[in-house]
Amino acid sequence: MQQQYEGYKDLADSLKSASALLNLERKSQLHQDIITICNHLVNPSFRIAVFGPFNHGKSTLLNAMLGNRTLPIDLIPTTGAAITVKYGSDVRTRIMLVDGTEISRSGTEVLQQFAILDGNRQMRKDVASVEVFCPHPFLETGVELLDLPGINDRDEQDNLVREQLLSADLVIQLLDARKLMTLGERENLRDWLLDRGIKTVIFVANFMNLLEPDEQKQVQNRLRFVAESFRAELPPGFSNLYRVDALPALRARLKGDVAAANSSGLAAFETALQNIVGILQPNRGSVRLPRVQAIASQIQHSLKAKIYSIAIEIKSFDDKQNSQIEIKQKAANLIYQGFTTSVGELRDWLALPKLLTKYQADAAVALAENNFKAWQTNTLKKDLTQLQFAAVKWLYQAYEFFQEERPQDLLIAFPSEPQVILPSKPSNTDDLSEPGSIAVGGGIGWLLGGPVGAAVVGSISYLLNKNIQTQDEQLAKESYHQEVAKLCITAIEDYLSYFSSQGLSILNEYEQKAEKIICFELSQEPLEITNRRKILQQLQNSFNQLLRELEKVKIISNYQYYKEVPKYTNPNRKYSPQPKRVKTSPQKDPGVKQQQENTAKNSETRVKSVSPRKEEVEAKFRDWELNEEIARMKAEMRSPKACRQTSPGSQTGKQQNTTQSNKAPNQPKTQTEKDNITRAYDVLGLQANASLAEVKQAYRTLVKKWHPDLFVGKPQLLKQAQDKMHLLNEAYTILSEK
Fold first, then answer.
1. What whole-number distance in Å separates Cα of residue 254 and Cα of residue 249?
2. Would you place residue 613 in the very low, low, confident or very high pLDDT band (cuts 50, 70, 90)?
3. Quick check: 231 and 194 in contact, CB under 8 A?
C-alpha cells in the first residue's frame, strides 16, 4: 500500500508541475481541480461526502450517523464551509484561516462563528479549512465524513462544493422526496459527477416520512428509475438507493431508540455503507484514478495546445532564419564561384608560357622601337586591369551582401622597363642578305638606326616564328642585328618572367584574404526565441513525464510521447564557402615546354594564339547570370514574404517557387501590350505563353550565338549582330518583367 501511495505521489507531482507550466489562473476551475485531486491522491483516508441542494438535511443525516448534534443544524441554510469530520479521542474543532492562523477549540461551538452562513447568507472568506474530530468507531477505520454547503443557493457555494467533490471517494447524494430530482439536480448528476469521473455515488431519499403511503410508493418507483439510470460503480450486490428519514433518525439516536432508528432507514443504510467502504477502502485507486484521468486529459489537451502554439512560433522563426541563411549561403557560393573563376583566369593569364605566347613578340618589337612604355600601358596594363577588375568586383559584391571585411584592390605592379646592352657593332652592319633580316615595318629602332634597326625588328619576328633545329643553330652565322634581336627577346622574357612570378605571388595572397570577405556570421539567436525553446522543451518534458506516470497507474491515454529534441546550440560561427578549387594551370604540351627552354636561344616554336572571342562571350554571359541571381537573392533578403515562401524544408514554398517559375505571365490589359508580348515571343523563337524558364533558356542560347564580340572585324555581320542583340534584350525585358 505504501508503494502504491508513493506512485500516486509521483503522479500528483507530475500533475502539479504541468499545471505550473500552463500558468493557469489560480481561481480557474482546472487549477482548483488539479490542487484538489493532487491532495486527494496522497490522502490515506477514505472520504465520504454528503452532497445536495440546501435545506435537504445533509448535516442532519451526518449528525444521525455520528449519534449527536456535532454539526450545525437550522431551518435555513447553515453550513457555510466544507466541514471534514475525522477520528479523534475527544470532540474538538480545528479551523485554519487563509492567513495561516490556526484556531483549535474543544467541542464544536466554534463552528457557529466560522462555519455557518452569515446574516446575508455569505460564507466567510477568511476560512481555509474546518475540521471536527470525533471518537466514532466508523471514523477510527480511516474514514472521513465531509459535510458540504448546500448547492443551488450561491455561485460561491456551488464552486466550493464542485471543487470538494473531487476529493470524495464516495458521494452520498441527498434527495428530497417531496420534490424529487429537479432540473438542477439532474444537471449536477451529469456535469458535476459523471463527466468528472465520479461514479461511486449512493442516493439517499430524505423526508419520505412526510408523504402519504400512496405517494411513498410512487416516489419510490421514481427513485428506483433515477438510481438505475445513473451508471454508479459500486461493489456487486449493493444498491445505490436508500431511504433515510434524517431528522427522525437523529432523534432516535439521541434517545437511544433502536427501533425508531431502524424504522427511519438509518440502520440499513449504515450497514450497507460500512460494507461498501470495507470493499472500496483497500483499493482506493480504482475510485480515485478515473477522476485523475478526467483532469489529466484536460491538462494534456492544454499542454498540447500550448506546445503547438510555441512550436509554430519557433518554426516560423527558424524557417525565416534558415531561409535567410540559405540565401546567404547560395550567394556566398555564387560569389565564390565567380571569384575563383576570375582568379583562375587571371592566374592562367599570368602563367609565363601564356605571357610569352601572347606578348613576347610585340613587347620585343616595342622595346626595339623604343615604344615599350606605350606598349605596356596600352596593351599589357589594359589587359591586366580588365582581369583584375573581373576578380575584385566579386569581393565588392560580397562586401555589399555580407558587410564583413572591406576588400582591398588587387594591385599587381609592373617590373622596371627592360634594359639592353648592345654588343660591339661589326663593320659589315649593312649586310642585310640573311633570311629574316628584312624589316617588318619602316620604323627606326632606338638601338640602331636606318635599315639595320628595321632588320632587328624583322629578326625578332623571324627568330620567334622560324623553327630552327639545334644542329642548324650551331652552324648558323649570326649577324649583328640577330644578336640584338636575341637580346631584346631575352630582356622581354626576363621582364615577363619576373612579372609572372610576382603577379602569381600577389594573387595567391589576395585570394587568401578573400576568404575573410566572402563569408558571413551566423547571428546569435534572440534571447526571446532561446527562452521560447526552453519553455517548449519544458512543456514537452512535462507532457512526457505525465504520460509515464499515468501509464504506471494503468491509466490509458490516446496521446503519444514527444520525441526528445536535441538541445539547441547556437555556435555563432562564420560560414565560408569552400567548394573544390579547380586549378587552371596551363597545359604542359611539348611545344610550350620547348618554348620555355629555348626562348633565350631563339630556337623555340612560336605557338599561334587562338582568338578568345568565344570564350570571352561565355565568360561575360556567365558573369551576367551570376549577377542576376545575386540581385534576385538580395531582393529576397529584403522581402520577408519571399523568405517565408522559400523556407527550407517547406513543401509549400517549393511548390510556390516551382509554380512561379513555370507559370505563364499574366495577361496584359491593353492591345499594345499584347502585340509587344507576341513579338517578343517571336524574337526568341517561342510559342505564346511559354514559361519564364523557357524564356531565359532561349535568351541564353541566342545571346551566345549573336553576341557582337563574336563579329569584330566583320563590319556587315557586326551590324547585324548588334541589331539582333537589341531585339533580344528588348524581348527578354518585356517577358521577364511581367
1. 9
2. low
3. yes
E strand or H helix that includes residue 83:
strand 83-87
Among 159, 164, 125, which residue's Cα sits nearest to residue 147? 164
pLDDT confidence of 579, banded at 50, 70, 90? low
Cell numbers 644578336 correspond to 483
Pick the closest to residue 117 from 154, 86, 92, 145 (CA basis): 154
pTM: 0.62
Q: Which DSSP helix (H) or strand (E) runs through 367?
A: helix 352-368
Cβ contact 398:520 at 8 Å: no
CB distance 345 to 387 below 8 Å = yes
Q: Hey, which residues does 186 pair with through a beta bridge?
A: none
Is 90 exceeded by the pLDDT of residue 541? yes
**169 pLDDT above the threshold of 60:** yes
DSSP labels, 616-680: HHHHHHHHHHHHHHHHHHHHHHH-HHHHHHT-TT-HHHHHHHHHHHHSPPPPPSSHHHHHHHHHH
CA distances from 649 to 320, 333, 530, 653 (A): 11, 20, 21, 8
- Collapsing DSSP to helix, strand or coil, 76 comes out as coil
User: What b/e readout covers 559-592, taking b as 16+ CB neighbours within 10 angstroms?
Assistant: beebeeeeeeeeeeeebebeeeeeeeeeeeeeeb
The residue whose grid cell reads 435545506 is 55
What is the rounded distance in angstroms from the CA atom of residue 31 to the CA atom of residue 22?
A: 9
Identify the H or E element spanning 130: strand 127-134
CB 368 within 8 A of CB 447: yes
Mean pLDDT (whole number) for 462-482: 55
Biggest CA pair distance of the chain: 166
Cell of 473: 643553330
Q: Which of 339-348, 622-631, 652-661 has the highest mean pLDDT?
A: 339-348
Task: Output the nine-digit C-alpha cell for 347.
Answer: 592566374
With vertex at residue 403, the alpha carbon angle to CA 399 and CA 408, rounded to the nearest 5 degrees, is 40
Tell me what pLDDT residue 644 has. 44
Q: How many residues are recorded in the chain?
A: 738
What pLDDT does 589 receive?
39
pLDDT tens-digit map of 213-226 = 888 888 888 888 87
| Pair 133, 164: CB distance under 8 Å | no
Distance CA 398, CA 328 (A): 10
Q: C-alpha dihedral over 679, 684, 689, 692, to 10 degrees? A: -130
